[in-house]
Amino acid sequence: LEEGELTARNCEGNLRLTARDARLLVSQWRGPAQVDSTGGTLQVERSPGSVLDLKLADAQASLVQGSGRTTATCTRGSFELDGYGGPVVLKASDRTSVATRDTSDRLDLEVTDGASVRVADAQGPVTARVRGTPLNVERARSLLVDARGSEVDLRGIAALKPALLDDCRGEVDLREASGTLVLTVTRSTGLSLLLSDPCEVRAKGPGGELGSGIDCSGCDLRLAATPPGASRRLLGGTKRTIVALTIDEGSRLQVRGD
């Protein structure tokens, strides 16, 4: 289909479509759908149990209030999820804008080459691998992140899975998290870390020996060279937040507990 419009509504079956500069609407579709679109728009809405395979270039795509497995590859353009309930595996590159809101299943995001990603209100686990692109996450049940050369803004993270920030800048707000959180910062990363008191940072690695790159207040700081000792007592029986930190000599970390 070149240019023009196509609407597939309230249908069941196997959809295969190649389009260029077209306006596509898939609504209440049940079954597998393969879409290869260059330019134009694609909207998939209220399609329960669908299985989507999307290859998009310079397209504006949105998935709204549906469910089912989705695999998508996006180059340039934009990709949005809003109220989506199925697992999504997404690869985005070359200035693609990615935005997700109110998702309830797993998100697996690989974002590179100047694309950007914004995640909000993710009820399922989020895995984000980003390279040279901004990463913004606001409210996620759990987050596993591998970011390199990125600006990061992470807030409202209930559970931080192992996180690697390499040559990154930004802020990580973990005041809603508890338990042991594993964080590695390398290659001149500069980061502000917010934790809920009572909290403790246990540092190791080349920058964790003497802690010259760690500015810590409102939190216990245990360096690799510090002899084992008593930590501050729990306040009112509250569970401590412990950050298992690995830091190199060139990185800088500002930690604030409140």
Structural account:
The chain is mainly beta. It contains no helices and 24 strands. Mean pLDDT is 90; it is low at 233-237.
Layout of helices and strands:
Blueprint: E1 5-12, E2 15-20, E3 23-30, E4 32-38, E5 41-45, E6 51-57, E7 60-64, E8 70-75, E9 78-82, E10 88-93, E11 97-103, E12 107-112, E13 116-131, E14 135-148, E15 151-157, E16 160-166, E17 169-174, E18 179-186, E19 190-195, E20 199-204, E21 214-217, E22 220-222, E23 241-247, E24 252-257
Parallel strand pairs: 1-3, 2-4, 3-5, 4-6, 5-7, 6-8, 7-9, 8-10, 9-11, 10-12, 11-13, 12-13, 13-14, 14-15, 14-16, 15-17, 16-18, 17-19, 18-23, 19-24, 20-22, 20-23, 21-24
**Strand percent estimate:** over 45%
Per DSSP E runs of 2 or more residues, the count of β-strands stands at 24
Number of helices: 0
Identify low-pLDDT runs.
Answer: 233-237
Broad structural category: mainly beta
Largest sheet: 24 strands, parallel
Radius of gyration from the alpha-carbon trace, in angstroms: 21 Å
Shape: elongated
Sequence of secondary-structure elements: EEEEEEEEEEEEEEEEEEEEEEEE
End-to-end Cα distance, whole Å, is 57 Å
Mean pLDDT: 90
Q: Helix content range of the residues, please?
A: under 10%
Features:
258 residues, mainly beta, 64% strand
Give a summary of the structure in a few sentences.
Helix content is 0%, strand content 64%. It is mostly beta strands and 258 residues long.
